[in-house]
Amino acid sequence: MKTKFKFIAIIILMGFSYSCFEDGDDNITAGTSIKDFVWKAMNVVYLYKSNINDLSNDRFASNAEYQNYLDSNETPEALFEALIYDRENVDRFSFITSNYFELEQQLSGVTLNNGAEFNFYIVPGSTTSVFGVVRLVHPNSSASAANLSRGQVFNKINDITLNTSNFSSLLANNSYSLSLAIYDDNDTETLSDDQIFDGDETITLVKEGYEENPIFHTAVIDVNSEKVGYLMYNSFVNEFDSELNVVFGDFKSQNISHLILDLRYNSGGSVQTATALGSMVTGQFQNQVFTTLKYNETLETNNFDYNFTNTLSNDEIINSLNLDKVYILTSNRSASASEMMVNSLKSYIEVVQIGGQTVGKSQASQIIYDSANLGRENANPGHTYALLPLIAITVNKNDETVPPSGIIPTINLLERPSNYGIIGDTEEPLLKAALEDIQGSNRLAFPSEIEMSPNDLNVLNPLETLMYIE
């Protein structure tokens, strides 16, 4: 994915200052200087500051008490973790690093990619054995050159049987071979009796420099004399805004009556691009609030409204469809700006959400350095610690947030390993469900599918769910 270096400029520098602590800085011992940075930074920027008593401005009566508090936390990491609000349910995403150079490299897109994306599941009847399913193959990549295809199943990497302890490390190799397997559902809807058998084909994948186009697939489908636009969009990346606008220009020229926006694998990105996409879907709400970015009480003067617009950032006129209803496909990989899209649009038009429950993350993050204004310039040369805390949250026009548990779909229909289908094909299960609802076949009453557990094999890491602001 094309991310460049903009991820470290998620918010406009807001004149951060440590001035209120300057009188006591000389009393901070050298051994706790990093912990001093952690506490003061979190005291200024952390979104959930008001929920953490130890971050209150009047928490310490003296410098000695503050020093004792820092000393009571063995490491900077321990202190940071102690300042996180409800790690299990609310803030699952803030983290600290001891090497911001590595973090910057990850966020700048300086990574290798073989063009394949996978979902992983526990083998039925086991508690530790794992198998993978190919969910996407990107064009012009190592995976596409090797003729890997969506829906293929594998149970070994480099001839090593996958389990819960090894599959992540095996995927980290720059080159590896997948041993394809056979998935047998025993001709039943029950998952517990499904079986995985070894196959006889091996596919080798090699990671290389690769730029992903987030516009993965588009189509116009004829349904009952009406035209339905379909778009699988996998990341909100502003470099592709003009190309996205061309897609909507085509939808508009073909006079589509319905739109299916597939965000099932979209884990976030640019707030500005999300606002532009919302404006393409609608068009009748010019200059009204699409979403509001809210900071903590210390920084609330930086709260900002993103309004529906008729132009892109380059002044290109937006192709708007003026729809009053949209279908959005989601999964447990839909996060951040994708969830913001659902939450913001539903306060204006009807949103029919089909698929799985989303991640539950609509907050923005920012790399925080040990410097006078918490920016990269003049960062303390004595260490390379940095923070990536949640600093703001998006709300819709009704001041509603995305629940930490995620957004529950209108139609709960999860991808099954036995039938992933082909993206864009009218028989692909999630797209088919949307088309059936458009045709009025009462898909809303369709029974929920049960996802294979545990779901946490496919949990997104914090870097995959970043929401950023140009």
User: Helix fraction?
Assistant: 10-25%
CATH architecture of the largest domain: Alpha-Beta Complex
- The domain count comes to 2
Distance between the termini: 17 Å
CATH class of the largest domain: Alpha Beta
Low confidence ranges: 1-24, 444-456
Layout: helices, strands, pairs:
Layout: H1 22-25, H2 33-45, H3 63-72, H4 76-82, E1 95-97, H5 100-107, E2 116-122, E3 130-137, H6 142-145, E4 153-157, E5 160-161, H7 167-171, E6 175-184, E7 195-206, E8 215-223, E9 226-233, H8 241-253, E10 258-262, E11 269-270, H9 271-281, E12 289-295, E13 304-307, E14 325-330, H10 337-345, E15 350-355, E16 363-365, E17 386-388, E18 390-395, E19 411-412, H11 429-438, E20 467-468
Characterization of this structure:
With about 475 residues, the protein is α/β, with parallel strands linked by helices. The protein has 2 domains: about 1-110 and about 210-470, 2-enoyl-CoA Hydratase, Chain A, domain 1, CATH 3.90.226.10; about 115-205, Pdz3 Domain. It is built from 11 helices and 20 strands. It has helices spanning about 20-25, 35-45, 65-70, 75-80, 100-105, 140-145, 165-170, 240-255, 270-280, 335-345, 430-440; strands at about 95, 115-120, 130-135, 155, 160, 175-185, 195-205, 215-225, 225-235, 260, 270, 290-295, 305, 325-330, 350-355, 365, 385-390, 390-395, 410, 465-470. The strands form 5 sheets. Strands 2, 3, 4, 5, 6 and 7 form a 6-stranded antiparallel β-sheet that branches. Strands 8-9-10-14-15-19 form a 6-stranded mixed β-sheet, sandwiched between helices. The chain has a 4-stranded antiparallel β-sheet with strand order 13-12-18-16. Helix 2 packs parallel to helix 4 (about 75-80) and helix 8 packs parallel to helix 9. The model is unreliable at about 1-25 and about 445-455 (pLDDT under 50).
